[in-house]
Write a structure and sequence with these properties.
The chain is mostly helical and about 200 residues long. The protein has a single domain, classed as Lysozyme (Orthogonal Bundle). The chain contains ten helices and no strands. The longest helix has 18 residues.
Length: about 200
């Protein structure tokens, strides 16, 4: 019964692009949270002797959750990072943003695997099996490197192109005005920043 629950939980996490309680906590008391701010609804209930909470512990938990979830793919991520000249943590952040680390994830649009490759992109990048983590990471990193090169190393534009397609980025002369794409960019860059913290 427990494995059935774990399987369903994994599917739900992949489908919703969430890491669960770690992400929820990070969003609730992230670095923007300030108990000392005026007009904060918590201000009237805060005892004077309690220091404002630090998000460091939550960020550390979140970092560990990401690293643990992606540990089985560490070698593939490192190889792809070296081969395509992309920081390994940037690849990790994209994987978490795309599939939450589920190698069997399938989006409603038909994107597959850890880095959520569409069939046409997978073919273009030489990926025969999008559900094979090594192939998926290599193909996804190759495509990410291609987008970084196309947009002069601009991570935001490369992520926008990875999510919405390069033509959408060029059509709008920047990040497309799509809420999903804008949220995706913020989410992946937040993951990247958290992974880069020591």
């Amino acid at each position: 019964m427990e494995s059935l629950f774990d399987g369903e939980l994994s599917k739900n996490i992949a489908r919703n692009n969430h890491l669960g309680i770690a992400e929820l906590l990070q969003e609730q008391i992230g670095s923007d949270f300030n108990l000392n701010r005026k007009n904060n609804s918590i201000e009237t209930t805060k005892p004077k002797f309690v220091p404002a909470p630090s998000s460091r512990g939550v960020d550390k938990y979140f970092q560990n959750e990401i690293r643990n979830r992606l540990a089985p793919y560490g070698k593939s991520i490192q190889q792809a990072a070296k081969k395509f000249g992309i920081p390994a943590n940037f690849i990790r952040a994209v994987i978490v943003g795309e599939s939450s680390g589920n190698p069997k994830a399938i989006s409603s649009q038909g994107a597959k695997g850890l880095m959520q490759l569409m069939d046409s992109t997978a073919r273009e990048m030489g990926v025969a099996d999008s559900f094979d983590p090594e192939q998926n990471v290599s193909g996804g990193a190759a495509y990410l490197a291609k987008m970084l090169k196309r947009f002069d190393g601009d991570k935001e534009l490369a992520l926008a192109a990875y999510n919405a397609g390069p033509n959408a980025v060029e059509k709008h002369s920047g990040i497309p005005p799509y809420k999903e794409t804008q949220q995706y960019i913020r989410r992946v860059l937040r993951y990247y920043d958290q992974l880069e913290e020591k």
